[in-house]
Design goal:
The protein is an alpha/beta fold and about 450 residues long. The protein has one domain: Alpha-Beta Barrel (TIM Barrel), CATH 3.20.20. The protein has helices at about 35-45, 70-75, 85-95, 110-125, 140-145, 155-170, 230-240, 250-265, 285-300, 300-315, 335-345, 350-360, 370-385, 400-420, 430-435; strands spanning about 10-15, 50-55, 100-105, 130-135, 180, 185-190, 200, 205, 220-225, 240-245, 275-280, 280-285, 370, 390-395. α4 packs across α6 (about 155-170) and α8 (about 250-265) packs across α13 (about 370-385). The longest helix has 19 residues, at about 155-170. The protein starts with 8 loop residues before the first strand and ends with a helix. The model has no long low-confidence stretch (mean pLDDT about 95). The chain binds flavin mononucleotide.
Length: about 450
């Protein structure tokens, strides 16, 4: 069946970070720790019938760019950042439909601990919890957890595979009908329906069973963003939502086809996993207004520094040492490979300055700038061409703002709804229901 004209999914991606307080889209902001800003954001997304809100995470203040934390702290690049799990619990209580995904590292959490946490969160949220599985790259994180350095890239995916395999076994250690609450015979849970898992792996072992009940979804929605062969393989094996930052419709199509092929090889139905493309739509009342905002955002020195500082932190290479008017020399990284390749555009002869400008909002698959109708048409055209499942909307420079959110929820989404391409009502109750609705 042709995918053209079909409805697609919307997720929103941010961190538990200071909302924009000092840039073109600032809305007061910067004082976000009590979570109120994020509850309001979630409620706005729910009004717009988004599938889910997802929080990124990383657990160190980088000191890669210029060998110091100074730039990161001065401009709030990557840091400071709160732990998104308790925030997700609060959001869950103050929303009714929206899925809430949280990033947790498979390298720095123990399988039993994370399985229990996810199960508890899914129960608290009534079946609306998701786990963004990341293997973690980036400066300073290993040291915060008592290691000299991160395990190598592909080994981190082996560890991740074991963590998730154990977690899945633990989530299934309670049968669906294990809790009987039989008052007559005084039985809360039927012990014959709660099982040990006796998992023995290379990195971890766990006996089980989990000491909490099966959650409404059985397991959280698993989200992943692998870009390397090992990452895509891991995603194809486990994920139900895959988010990607590949650039341009050709690469988007190739990525989705690759994932779907790998899923089939694992015996999974590719339609049970939604591939979402990261975009940062800059929406104005008119095309001209949006273009002016876009230029203001991209031409700011802060944006250029942000790109260099983030890519330095993610890749472990201090990019402050390179001449902006020369191409970036080729280098290898065991950290986050794709992002460095994407910035450098090796082989094209482009200078670092040109590359930084083109990198724009660092994850975007396609650039979207214009009035609600212009952007909605471009989103529909790209998804029809690629055959994808939807978009993950990211705020410029990972800096959420009320102004940006309103431009999406009250500008762009109604234009997409008028075209019949995104939902106008929730039909299911769980995060997974939303994903499998179409
Ligand atoms: C949209 C998106 C969100 C991501 N969120 C996080 C995150 O919150 N924390 C993190 O450590 N990595 C995050 N990553 C990095 C990915 O997990 C992954 O490591 C990266 O895409 C590189 O792929 P690879 O690990 O296969 O090399 C994200 C990537 C993308 C594209």
């Amino acid at each position: 069946m042709s995918d053209v004209g079909r409805p697609f999914h919307l997720g929103y991606f941010t961190g538990f970070v200071p909302d924009e307080w000092n840039g073109p889209l600032a809305s007061g902001g910067g004082d976000f720790w009590n979570g109120h800003f994020y509850v309001e954001l979630a409620q706005a997304l729910e009004r717009a019938k988004f599938d889910f809100l997802m929080f990124e995470d990383a657990v160190a203040i980088p000191d890669t760019y210029g060998g110091s934390r100074e730039l990161y702290l001065r401009h709030n690049f990557v840091a400071p950042k709160g732990d998104p799990v308790p925030l997700a619990a609060i959001i869950g209580y103050l929303t009714r439909h929206l899925g809430v995904g949280v990033t947790m590292s498979t390298t720095f959490t123990l399988p039993y601990q994370v399985a229990r946490l996810c199960s508890t969160m899914d129960s608290l949220l009534g079946g609306r919890f998701g786990w963004n599985l990341v293997t973690t790259a980036g400066a300073g994180i290993a040291e915060n957890y008592g290691l000299d350095k991160l395990p190598d890239h592909d080994e981190r995916y082996e560890i991740a595979d074991e963590t998730v395999s154990i977690a899945k076994a633990l989530w299934n250690s309670w049968d669906e009908d294990a809790v009987v609450r039989d008052r007559e015979n005084g039985i809360y849970a039927d012990a014959s329906k709660v099982h040990e898992i006796n998992y023995r792996g290379t990195h971890f072992s766990s006996r089980g069973p989990l000491n909490t009940v099966r959650s409404p979804q059985g397991q959280p929605v698993l989200i992943q963003a692998g870009a390397s062969p090992a990452g895509m393989d891991f995603a194809a094996k486990h994920a139900e939502v895959i988010v990607t930052a590949v650039r341009g419709t050709e690469a988007m199509k190739a990525y989705r086809d690759e994932i779907r092929g790998r899923m089939t090889a694992y015996g999974r139905d590719p339609d049970t996993c939604k591939v979402l493309f990261v975009v940062t739509p800059i929406v104005g009342r008119t095309d001209e207004e949006a273009q002016a905002t876009y230029e203001a955002l991209l031409s700011s020195e802060r944006t250029a520094l942000d790109v260099l500082a983030r890519v330095s932190g993610w890749s472990g290479h201090d990019l402050s040492q390179y001449d902006l008017d020369e191409p970036l020399p080729e280098m290898h990284t065991e950290a986050s490979r794709g992002i460095l390749e994407r910035l450098a555009q090796w082989g094209t002869g482009k200078t670092l300055r040109q590359c930084v400008r083109e990198m724009g909002f660092s994850h975007d698959c396609i650039d979207l700038v214009g009035s609600p109708d212009t952007v909605a048409d471009a989103m529909c055209a790209a998804i029809d061409e690629v055959g994808g499942d939807g978009y993950l909307i990211e705020s410029p420079g990972f800096q959420p703002s009320r102004v940006f959110t309103a431009s999406i929820t009250d500008g762009l989404v109604p234009a997409l709804q008028r075209r019949g391409r995104v939902r106008t009502e929730y039909r299911g109750t769980t995060f997974r229901d939303h994903l499998l609705e179409f």
